[in-house]
Design brief:
Strand content: 25-35%
Number of strands: 14
Distance between the termini: 60 Å
Order of helices and strands: EHEHEHEHEEEEEEHEHEHEEH
Strand order of the largest sheet: 7-6-5-8-4-1-2-3-9
Length: 302
């Protein structure tokens, strides 16, 4: 009987991948890092857990289970670590691999899917033979439900060949922007870090998360990288995305293609963001945003 192998570092990611994996029959899960393995076992499948979350350790753990179960499909959500780890697996066994895929359909000995290219501005439909490795686009697949039966949890031990001599944690803002339903995003239209308070005040009224364009996080360091929206940052799919002082470079637009409603505020009427939004406001953000915040606060707190 055909089987599949799901890989992930969070329960939400694994639950999305399980929806695809269950189409093939038996499922095995490789979970890594601080994920709750006991909770994952409630989905009814065997869970292999490793405490490490670096790409090499993930690769070694996945290879070990791959060699045991010989799955027809390895499936996970797209992330930097999994691109690294699973591309090694695909290269080792000469497996077709694709990232950021959705609309996955299994039929016989092949799998079809849709994926974006040209920075997400176009779509292509592909069909590849099984076995294959697929990394799913986040939040485009419904989450699988837990089972009445419970699977086993097995701890794995892997020994990486690289020795870690020091760990320096990245600065994090404690946000999960990919899960946000409303995002207020800031760009270089803000003249100083202190001025971001205008956006934070608006986000508070809307119960929104704060996002940003690449320069704000990567160059100016006004916000941490977990706020960064774009091709090299986080791809988001909120119900409402407000782009304030963001010109709309292709790399940024690639990160918001799945937003349901995009509102742009910019004083440059020729900014590319206005060709990629549902509502556009040509105005000085320093004048417009405080008024908008005040009106929304009055309306929402009547």
């Amino acid at each position: 009987m055909a089987s599949s192998l799901v890989v992930g570092g969070s329960e939400d990611d694994i639950a999305e991948a399980l929806t695809i994996a269950r189409q093939l029959g038996s499922v095995h899960i490789v979970a890594y890092g601080n994920v709750n393995a006991a909770s994952l076992a409630e989905y009814g499948h065997t869970v292999y857990h490793i405490g490490q979350d670096d790409p090499e350790s993930i690769f070694k753990a996945v290879k070990e289970i791959y060699d045991q179960v010989k799955p027809s499909l390895v499936v996970a959500l797209t992330s930097k670590n999994l691109k690294d780890a699973l591309s090694r697996l695909a290269g080792l066994y000469d497996l077709p691999m694709a990232t950021e895929v959705f609309n996955v359909k299994l039929s016989g000995d092949q799998v079809s899917y849709t994926r974006g290219f040209l920075s997400g501005r176009a779509l292509e439909d592909d069909v590849v033979p099984l076995p294959a490795v697929l990394l799913l686009a986040a939040r485009k697949t419904p989450k699988a439900q837990k089972s009445q039966s419970k699977g086993d949890v097995k701890e794995l031990t892997v020994t990486p060949s690289i020795k870690v001599v020091e760990r320096r944690p990245k600065e994090r803002g404690g946000v999960n922007i990919e899960a946000a339903e409303i995002i207020v995003s800031v760009g270089r239209g803000f003249r100083s870090k202190d001025d971001l308070k205008l956006a934070f005040d608006l986000a508070e009224v809307l119960n929104a998360q704060i996002g940003c364009s690449r320069p704000v996080a990567a160059d100016l360091k006004w916000l941490s990288e977990d706020h960064w929206v774009g091709l090299s940052g986080h791809k988001v799919a909120p119900k409402l995305y407000m782009a304030i002082g963001i010109s709309g470079a292709p790399q940024h637009l690639a990160g918001i293609t799945d937003a349901k409603l995009v509102v742009a505020i910019n004083n440059d009427k020729s900014a590319p963001i206005f060709k990629n939004c549902d509502y556009g406001v040509v105005a000085d953000l320093y004048q417009f945003v405080p008024v908008l915040t005040k009106r929304l606060r009055e309306r929402l707190h009547k």
